[in-house]
Specification:
Keywords: Membrane, Transmembrane, Transmembrane helix. The chain is α+β, with helices and mostly antiparallel strands. It folds into 2 domains: 3-88, Serine Threonine Protein Phosphatase 5, Tetratricopeptide repeat (Alpha Horseshoe), CATH 1.25.40; 114-160. The protein has helices at residues 3-17, 21-32, 38-47, 51-64, 71-87, 114-132, 140-160; strands spanning 91-96, 103-112, 162-167, 174-177. A 4-stranded antiparallel sheet has the order 1-2-3-4. Helix 6 packs antiparallel against helix 7 (140-160). It is elongated, with a radius of gyration of 24 Å. The structure holds zinc ion.
Length: 179
């Protein structure tokens, strides 16, 4: 690797270590387009959520260095990734991702929707009103019970009102709302 590539490589590694996998992966892919160092193949194999791409990288490494000491570890990681891919999220239609330009089957995930947050905000306000409302010492306990009842309704409702979204099967970015 030349100095420029090495800098990009290190930057991408730092991003991957801090959990910014999709950004790191994009940089590794860019590096790979003009550089076929084995380190870059390793980096892509470990950061990609796409089992097909990981498989491709592992096979390339095996062709280059059949006895590379880290191959076994990479295979184990890959196996876990495949199992995760089949059990974690339901699979949606195949979509073109605007972020990584890959056409992969989307994953379906559940998110709290705007309506859910509004619901919670409304009940949280009611909770505060009951908590702060002027009351007599006798009535204090009842007011507190009412306050926490409304807080509970707010939380349960928020968790129930959710929407489904499509996530890119390759980089994990949100592509669109599912209907
Ligand atoms: Zn993507």
């Amino acid at each position: 690797m030349n100095d420029v590539d090495l800098n990009v490589y290190r930057h991408a590694q730092a991003l991957a270590n801090s959990g910014q996998m999709s950004l790191a992966l994009q940089m590794f892919r860019e590096l790979r387009s003009h550089n076929s160092d084995i380190e870059i193949l390793f980096a892509i194999a470990t950061t990609t959520p796409n089992p097909v791409e990981a498989r491709e990288m592992i096979d390339m490494i095996r062709n280059l260095q059949p006895y590379h000491p880290q191959l076994a570890q990479l295979e184990t990681l890959h196996k876990q990734k495949i199992q995760g891919a089949y059990t974690a999220d339901p699979i949606g239609p195949t979509l073109l991702c605007p972020y990584c330009q890959q056409r992969t089957p989307a994953r379906i995930k559940s998110r709290i929707s705007t309506g859910g947050w509004v619901w919670f905000a409304v009940f949280f306000m009611i909770f505060l009103c009951f908590l702060w409302a002027p009351t007599t010492a006798d009535n204090m306990k009842n007011m507190e019970i009412a306050a926490f009842f409304f807080l509970g309704v707010g939380i349960v409702g928020m968790l129930l009102i959710h929407k489904r979204i499509y996530i890119c099967g390759s980089c994990g970015s949100k592509i669109t709302d599912a209907h």
